[in-house]
Amino acid sequence: MARSRLTPERESELYAAVLDLLGEVGYEALTMDAVAARTRSSKATLYRQWGSKAELVVKALRNDKPVHLGDVDTGSLRGDFLAVVTRTDDCQMEKNSALLRGLSHAVHDNPDLFQALRDLLIEPEMTGLGSMLQRAVDRGEVRPDNPALPYVPHMMIGAFAARELVDCQPVDQAFLTDYVDSVVFPALGI
Amino acid sequence: MARSRLTPERESELYAAVLDLLGEVGYEALTMDAVAARTRSSKATLYRQWGSKAELVVKALRNDKPVHLGDVDTGSLRGDFLAVVTRTDDCQMEKNSALLRGLSHAVHDNPDLFQALRDLLIEPEMTGLGSMLQRAVDRGEVRPDNPALPYVPHMMIGAFAARELVDCQPVDQAFLTDYVDSVVFPALGI
């Protein structure tokens, strides 16, 4: 755990620069040197703060997400899903998809990128989704033994993966809202 | 459309060799020269028959699938899904996943591989799945206006994509059967 020597504003600035570079040159060609040059910081600072390129990139992605599933609590499961879907605008969603497409390519050759994605992005979001669903169970919206409960991540990931592969269209708010209403809620018995 | 000059046995032999090579060296390093050498055929024959490396690889994958969705018709939707799931044994499923992982990597750099995958593998399977679902509607198992109907591909692709990403486990018959019973059928109102 490196002690933070950066202000939150400076950290956000750095993350934004990393994402810009990532979009411009891709993960392979993104070097700590390039990040240091672009952000006028020293490589030593970058390594002290983040340890590795993989960690820096994934933390930048995580910082860029406008909504974390764990932070959402509207009082109903439908409200929670809609909050997540509608707080990310379509343009941002398109940008995220492009970045993730680029990263999914890089993941094949970089086990530490995969590990960082799992630890810093996928696991926390799965935990957040788990809490969201648990609250729905506690409120009596979903039966605790509903067999579809463990599969909500699979349904949601399928929406993103198949939208491009099958429909050849980008994911947007209208599609995700319809998908949640047509698939996720009926499967959960809501 | 090249006229077929190969017996079905010879064609299967060629496809098997292509898949072996694909597993050994990956899509990038797989050359028509290597296929010609391995199968003791001429490059001219390969190009006459398949036109391109992308087409040859995708046709080999398609030939290797033990079940095509369009061929399945057991008289009930659950029977159809189970037939698809259980006719592919777990070992074959693991092998297919490894091949598709390798290919999903190559797809990023090869638009013609992506096009061939869409035209020769994804589209026909989507058409087959569509017929399977239409028969369920015709039999009265699923209401024709069920909003989850267009999303069955998304649910199924999610099962495969999320199994490795979230669960870090390979897809097998037990998982797929449970997923279909827990997610797909309830969403379809069965």
From TrEMBL, chains A, B:
Keywords: DNA-binding, Transcription, Transcription regulation. Gene3D superfamilies: Homeodomain-like (1.10.10.60), Tetracycline Repressor, domain 2 (1.10.357.10). Residues 31-50 bind DNA. Pfam families: TetR_C_11, TetR_N. InterPro entries: Homeodomain-like_sf, HTH-type_TetR-like_transc_reg, HTH_TetR, Tet_transcr_reg_TetR-rel_C_sf, TetR_C. Residues 8-68 form the HTH tetR-type domain. This is TetR/AcrR family transcriptional regulator. The lineage of its organism: Bacteria, Bacillati, Actinomycetota, Actinomycetes, Kitasatosporales.
